[in-house]
Amino acid sequence: MAPKKNDDSIPKETRKRGDRGRTIMKSVIQERSRRNALLEVEWNRKGQPINHNASRFTSYIGLVTRREASILVPDWKDPYHDEAKEEIWQDILNTWNVNECHKSFVLSKAGTALNRHIHNLSIHLQNGRVEQPPKKYVDIISKEDWLEFVKHCNDPAFLLYETQSEELSLPRHRLFRTARLDKNGRTNNPKALQIIRDIGINPCVLLDKHGCAVAKGYMYNLEGDMLHDSFDWAVAGDILHFCVLGVEQSEFSASGDMGDTFLTICALFFLLIREVNQHSRRSLHLPVPRQTNALQETTCFKEHIQTSHFRKKLEEKVATALSKPLSLASPSSGLERNTRVFYPTAYGADPTGARDSSDAILKAIGDAFKIGSGFELLPGIKDLGGVVIDLQGGSYKISKPITFPSCGGNVVVKGGTLRAIDPFPGDRHLVELATTNQHGCNNKGINYEDITFQDILFDSSYRGGGISIIDSARIRINNCFFLHFTTQGILVKRGHETFISNSFLGQHSTVGGDIGERQFGGTAIDLSSNDNTITDVAIFSAAIGVSLKGQANMITGVHCYNKATGFGGIGIWVQLPGLSQTRIDNCYMDYNGIVLEDPVQVHITNGFFLGDGNIILKSIKGRISGLTIVDNTFSGNPNAKVPIVAINGKFSNIDQVVIDRNNVNGMSLKSTVGKLSVAGNGSKWVADFSKTLVFPNRINHFQYSIFSQGQPKFFAHSVTSVSNNIVVVESEKPTKGVVSFFVEQ
């Protein structure tokens, strides 16, 4: 028995193309029903379907579109199709696992499918079959719609729409060529190559005198004239041989003024060739090219373009370019073009790191700061409009600090490496937001505002520091890496609101347990400023991780394993005694700790202290006020029993201090709150809190209660002593009982 037309048993190679749509629809419905779940489709970053279900998904969109959309309205943007668009989208949602963000792709594909469907139907009409639609569409196109479509196809407006669509579409021979030639204009398929030769599509490569390709494209024939397709061109080599319009073997240097002139000629030439192509296609209506032999490679164009108008125009352009040499990559070109992106490489910077790029980078920054938007940020701070200084992923050696001009803001510096070389001064920083202008930009004391550094590696090469930010406001350092500093990785003085995030800092490259850890020096982050934020930062080697000498700073998510406390290291050092006002939250002190000098309004919470890392209260003037240390985790060596909070010096002025709700493993718990139960049979109960309470000989509040387990039940009792963090309760008569104590410092 012959198989049915839609039978899945029919081999793919013998199945008619007309059955493809029905087969896909059938397979999708069957799989959807069998799995009882939405079909999966993967997407790439551009929002396009990929992998095994991609073609099925796009085909399914076309099937649903042909079923839901009307063929009587060819314009997919017409509001008439709004209802059909929603029906198509709902069908996709009911069948495929897609999100709302994919709706635009689906509807765009649907529009393309409708246009192709209408075009195929119009071809069906041109073949003289007007009585009924193609057999494969009889179940989705009614007879009434078909007759209306036939009538509609003879409408002048529809004919104009079809004509415009054909003019905008690419010629089929170009599509054939593009699909079968690689980026070098070659193919390993001899059959495809023969067809390309037959229709006159020829790969062409422009060579220099050394045989290096400097441009590549295709030649094809139009009514006997050989025209060049759009070229992608680039300069390679020292001398280029260029031949165009009868100017044979002209040589131009690839450097200096003549090199710039040559580039200008190339640019003009390829633009005009493209213009000739477009003109020829319009005038010739894309005729079928005649057969010709292919040119595999050429160093010049052997056929002259027979369009005198464009030849004359090109000769005039070339003559003008030769008489007025142009510099396409001059150091000031960024400013002349009024661009908003500056590349140090255009100023002579070496992205390979083979030579010093200090002056080139300084020139690029200087030009960037000359651009303005006509607005100001803070008074006296020029708004540069978001200008970008792009290092383009280069590694630049610098022998002197990159100092930014003052009185500017709204700038982004991104994407590269700055590495110090001899004779870089050891007391300076790779990048400096600092000015010698004694008058400043305004009466606020701020010289820089809104400057962002992102995706940059600062390698100080053990010569000074990474970046210094002085008298600045709202500076951002994001996704940066600081290495080999001897002073500070980041130094901030005065100003406020410097945000440091998602960055790594270390004097030496290590992941911990370094044999040279005892010799680690320098400070990773030194903030002598107010209102700054450090978020999600790892400090892997330095004597001091973070030094805070300003008020109202906030540190969140910082991991310090810069140098162990046993070797003299400090994770976070809060200075400015009596004025600190600092919040430290969710930080990880890895074998080092936090030092607080006369802390006032300091909050430490949700931290993790590993390897005997603890908190040291250091007395400068003997004052503590508003200190909160709660909900932290401490883990250490049980043999050492290091206290989680230790006192360095004597404090005489203590107020509003809460150290409580911390959990401990292998360390000594310390708190400002104590609870203890003492059982006994007698008339005296002693509670010793000296090992628990933080401050010596200090109990401000106490409570106690007695649970009598013997006789008499009721008797007189009282606290008789509170001294050296020891509380004594005595009763009038001996009895058996338990006394519970609660004390606060």
Automatic annotation (TrEMBL):
> From which domain of life does this come?
Eukaryota
Q: Region annotation Disordered: residue ranges?
A: 1-24
Gene3D superfamilies from the UniProt entry: Single-stranded right-handed beta-helix, Pectin lyase-like (2.160.20.10)
User: Does the keyword Secreted belong to this entry?
Assistant: yes
Entry GO MF terms: polygalacturonase activity
Secreted found in the keyword field: yes
Q: Which UniProt keywords apply?
A: Cell wall, Secreted
The main location is: secreted
Where would you find this protein in the cell? Secreted, Cell wall
Transmembrane stretches in the record are none
Q: Where is the composition biased (Basic and acidic residues)?
A: 1-13
Q: What is this protein called?
A: Right handed beta helix domain-containing protein
